[in-house]
Give the backbone structure.
Amino acid sequence: MDRTDILNLPSPPTKEWKAIVKDFAKPRMGMAAWQLVNSVGAYVALWVGMFFLLKIESNWKWGIILPVALLAGALVVRIFIIFHDCGHGSFFKNKKYNNFWGFITGTLAFTPYMHWRWEHSVHHAHNGHLGRRGVGDIWTMTVDEYLNSTPRSRFFYRLGRNPLVLFLIGPMYTFMIRHRFPLAKAKRSDKISVLYSNLAIAAMIFSLCLLFGWKEYLFITFIVMTVASTTGVWLFYVQHQFEDTYWETEENWDYFKAAVYGSSFYKLPKVFQWFSGNIGFHHIHHLSSKIPNYNLERCHKSHEMFNSVKPLTFWKSLKCINYRLWDAENMKLITFSQLRNKLKDSQGLNA
């Protein structure tokens, strides 16, 4: 059975799949506390280690600080997943704990908690919905939209889809600059939360500049956040921007199919799975955002229903870099070169 056959099958009744995931949508205090220790605790420990390394009167100290900073950047990815789970109310049972640790981990990841929570909830509600793109996602044009757009719009779309911009410049801009300003359509409370987040981040930066020295702190933070933001955007990209992803119009959109087939099962080596907080099981996460990261793999393995989800391996995921446009006719993402070939074939048939 190929993907087209799977997509044409009716989705299981909502009650049926909700019953399957229900047992996994239960936060566990012990597991949550341990993740805070091995993630936030480890991150703080690395910064303490770098502080003492800076005290060494030798140039070789930077040969140790650099890999430590790279490791700290990888830990920020895991911290962001904790932040992400808090935003869904799935990390702890207690709402106050989720909001408290969501704010703390958001400060460490330079991301405003409440505002991001709102943006991300829009993404979950409208994932795979062609008519409701634009908030909390990576903007994706359809073939028709691209062909009917102005040369200026095409230029900026192609520029934004350039790998250097999409995975290096864009992520740093997003985390360090764009997150400092709320979207116009956000609620007043979410806008105010951005101000509180900015104040907390400013206090953190000021304190650590005094402690480390401003040049040293900014250099280390640049390394940490480059690793974290680039990795984070890459993970988010491949979670939805793969060739056979799911996009549909209003009348055909289906929540179950958008979750399970419009979100990838990104199968990573165990060490990368740990640093990415199991977010590779993204099809499970979109099916039920109330499942904490530490239960996602167990849920995936719990039922044969999920066997139809084809895993995306790391090496195969590299091909996703070239996918740019949604081809509604063939129901898949295509590259710019595939669009050129398609237009040539069309012109040949019309000649």
About this structure: Strands lie at 141-142, 265-267, 311-313, 325-327, 332-334. DSSP finds 17 helices and five strands in the chain.
